[in-house]
Amino acid sequence: MPIVTALVAGLLFGLGLIVSGMADPSKVLGFLDLAGAWDPSLAFVMAGAIAVGLGAFAVAKRRRTSLIGLDMQLPASTTVDRRLVGGSLLFGIGWGIAGLCPGPGLVALGMGQPKAAVFVLAMLAGMGIFELLERK
Amino acid sequence: MNIAWNAITPYASLAGGAVIGLAASLLVLFNGRIAGISGVLGGLLKPRTGDVGWRLAFVGGLVAAPAAYALFAAVPAPHVSASWGAIALAGLLVGVGTRYGSGCTSGHGVCGLSRLSPRSLVATLTFMAAGFATVLVVRHALVL
């Protein structure tokens, strides 16, 4: 059952990215390019996603188990530290260079875009570097 | 500020965003997990028993989404303007950065803001600012 719900969630997430236009890096870069012809569409995507998510996460926060009895695993940390800010800075720079973040990278890979394959491989390598540096 | 009125897609983006919100809602309500793509992927690099299947299924769903979309309509082609080297550098930065920052656009931006996490608000504002600054430099100050 958890496999099925995760598959459906992943599929819907990907469909949402395609419908919203966010699987196209040029559209994302249009949002990030404040000095050019600015395309605010990404803000509409965030608004739509958060409007739906607010209710679900309000319910999730009050539960100890999921609807199918799994542990509710929400992040517990509330501290803002250098890792959070530094990591987010690096991510934002990479995002601005390619117009790709992890979700759209995987969806564009599914579209058969060769550069998305390079992006995903490099991203996995980056995550592997993190594991090597942090695995104690 | 110069708004690209010919490019903006308010209804499709709002609707697509709502579907993304629905997907994140399903994953947290049924699996008890945050739909953060970088976190789901990262967890596969240090696999733990019983914690692999749902991750692979979620990632598989994302990769299969274009094939599912193609059943109903032609899939819009993604336009990647960055060079191969720039793409590889971007991927590395995104991989390292999202793991140190504990999340990306989905985990912090969608899920974190939906659960009103101050940490995610800081992360989202940080990577957005870095993204704006990077595009400003790449597009308007130098040619990569």
Structure commentary:
The complex is a heterodimer of chains A (136) and B (144). Chain A has helices at residues 2-20, 25-32, 41-61, 82-98, 102-110, 114-134; one strand at 37-38. In chain A, α5 (102-110) packs across α6 (114-134). Chain A has one domain (2-134). Chain A is mostly helical and 136 residues long. Chain A contains 6 helices and 1 strand. Chain B is mainly alpha-helical. Chain B has one domain. Helices cover 67% and strands 1% of the residues of chain B. Chain B contains 6 helices and 1 strand. Chain B has helices at residues 10-31, 37-42, 53-70, 84-100, 105-114, 118-140; one strand at 2-3. In chain B, 58% of the residues are buried. Classes of the chains: A mainly alpha (136), B mainly alpha (144). At the A-B interface, α1, α2, β1, α3 and α4 of A face β1, α1, α2, α3 and α4 of B. β1 (37-38) of chain A pairs parallel with β1 (2-3) of chain B.
Instruction: Report the β-strand fraction of chain B as a percent range.
Output: under 5%
Residues in helix, % of chain B: 55-70%
| C-alpha geometry of chain A | globular
Number of strands of chain A: 1
Report the mean per-residue pLDDT of chain A as an integer: 96
Summarize the amount of helix of chain A as a percent range. Answer: 55-70%
Largest interface: A-B, 120 and 113 residues
